[in-house]
Amino acid sequence: MARVASDLRVKMNAVPNVDPIPVIIRRKSGIFSAQAVLDTTGDVAKSFKIFPGEAVAMTAAQIEKASQRDDIEDIWPDLPVKAWLDVSVPKLAVPMVWAAGLRGRGIRVAIIDTGIDETHPDFAGRIKAMASFVDDTPRDENGHGTHVAGIVAGSGAKSGAKYVGVAPEADLYIAKVLDGDGSGSMSGVMAGIEWAVLDQKAQVINLSLGGVGPCDGTDALSTLCDEAVQQAGVVICAAAGNTGPGASTVGSPGCARYVITVGAVDDGDQMARFSSRGPTSDGRFKPDIVFPGVSIAAAQGAGTELGPVVADGYIAISGTSMATPHASGVAALMLQANPHLSSSQLKTQMLATAVNLGFDPNDQGVGRGDAFQSYQKALELLPPEPSPEPPDPAPQPQPESPSPPAKPAPQPPEPTPSPTPPSGCMGILVNLLKR
Amino acid sequence: MGLFSKEGVMAIIDPALQSRLEAEPAESVSLIIRTQGPPHVVWMESQNIKVDRQFRLSPGAAISCTGAQALTLLSQDWVISVESDQPVSAF
Description:
The complex is a heterodimer.
Chain A: E1 3-4, H1 6-14, E2 21-27, H2 34-40, E3 44-48, E4 53-58, H3 60-66, E5 72-77, H4 85-91, H5 94-99, E6 108-113, E7 127-132, H6 144-153, E8 171-176, E9 183-185, H7 186-199, E10 204-207, E11 209-210, H8 220-232, E12 235-239, E13 260-265, E14 289-292, E15 296-299, E16 309-311, E17 314-317, H9 320-337, H10 343-352, H11 361-364, H12 371-380, H13 423-433
Parallel strand pairs in A: 1-5, 6-8, 6-10, 7-8, 10-12, 12-13, 13-14
Antiparallel strand pairs in A: 2-4, 2-5, 3-4, 15-17, 16-17
Helix pairs in contact in A: 6-9, 7-8, 9-12, 10-12
Chain B: E1 12-13, H1 15-23, E2 28-35, H2 41-46, E3 50-55, E4 60-66, H3 67-73, E5 79-84, E6 87-90
Parallel strand pairs in B: 1-5
Antiparallel strand pairs in B: 2-4, 2-5, 3-4
Helix pairs in contact in B: 1-3
């Protein structure tokens, strides 16, 4: 039996029986016949590559019949795109951090994905290094990596600053570990992480990828991620996965202990049904936090067709892949605010400032991230500036000392009141940090 | 699975993977091994085990070999664990 989304049920009852309703079908891997869907339903408008599924137009009766099939997992309404990067970024209060003068400048962010369209104007001058671990070109032949990079650090140049990423001045380091179909191997991802950490000195790594859950965090990829965080001090943001809403569906490396595992919500702060859920197979809460990941519009790779075009050079797609780069962008802003933050401190503060949405910790982690609150917490942890030396009766030449890190600009002109975390938030956080 | 020092102990392997290797000894497999110290590349190559990548953050390697060759790794005292090089995909 397939799951039929509740809002689709409402729509099925509201329209005449003969009217086709646009829907998206997610099928179970490996036991599905496209012809079977054609026989049962209507014309396939689009097939998806990231998960096995199709967009089709079906009458209410056809949807009902399809819902009886064992080879179909979910049927959702194909809704108009409404939550774009120009919605999600303000929702996280990112512009308030920009107003304080922080846009990620100089922070080294690695995107380990399908490569990048380096000709997209939104990345001009900021792609510092590229490498491929799957073929002979880091060019993005899928579109996923370009979109993810746009959410982290797109400048919005091609859209007249409409679709601007979270940290639009960050430097990008691109490791291609997934092929044109969006597939790769754990060992390839591990090689990409090592390149980013050891050769490029990346400070933030975005992993909008992974394997099938459940897992306990002791597999090779998760272990390597934890070593990178602990030994090299890099911040790793990893997608929870798109196999929700069932329990224990977070896959590697999302189950690693020290990464920031990111689930997805929509622009109304409702859990995305597809967002993978915890616990891990050894009983830990995951994900750690959620960010917007439904119908996010960002950069389109040239020649790729991963989702509907919303403007020239921009497409909208959904997934925890789209939520994760929001977290990576916030991490970049926090590191610019306070370069002394350790990866552990950064994770703690990002989680401590999340807005508790009231869902189960294995759905939302601590809640939805907030860029401005995270930034403020990062500032609070700045080391005190050295106090002036007492007057020396016999002045002597002073050795040159390194300058303290530049303190970011003061508060934005019209700061909004800090939302007080609901009472349950800290309790959840304490449990999560025990992982 | 976990990472432990091993002396005279078989390398850690998922029982399902071990069964598969034993059932299909001629089948080609892609694996990740974690090792105590650098992986013994010369030894593996002498056994016709192809070393695809060596890792630097934590000792280990990605290898390609047959099921039978993989089983020989389990008794090597420098091999801590053997696991499948699993597929990953974009989310």
